[in-house]
Write a structure and sequence with these properties.
The structure is a single chain. Helix 1 (63-72) runs parallel beside helix 2. The protein contains two helices and seven strands. It has 127 residues and is an alpha/beta fold. The model has no long low-confidence stretch (mean pLDDT 98). The protein has a single domain (4-126), classed as 3-Layer(bba) Sandwich (Glucose Oxidase, domain 1), CATH 3.50.30.10.
Length: 127
Amino acid sequence: MKGRMISPGKARGEAIVSKEPIGFYGGIDPKTGVVIEKGHELEGKSVKDKILVFPQGKGSTVGSYIIYGLKKNGVAPAAIVNKETETIVATGVILAGIPCVDGIDIDKIKTGDKLKVDADEATVEVE
């Protein structure tokens, strides 16, 4: 699948997919990488070393720094794939150096799929 590069880099890993937007501030614990937003479909799941797939971000601009904190604490996703990356997620992945691609039909990706993300080429492949 061809999309748009938001933050360069390459990653391979297991997809963890949400059909709901993700708010990083108050939604993911920056010390553990576990989704803590009450009622979110990924609540209790870790994003560490996964390819995190979701439609778009939501919430506070502090979310950018939560993404950076995830990386600094060694619990960040290996890459992020979005339908549409908004400025909070874009700023966070660039600060953290996390590969990110948007413009992807995320309905074609399921949790557990093995993905190859090449943000430099703006591609996402299900392996």
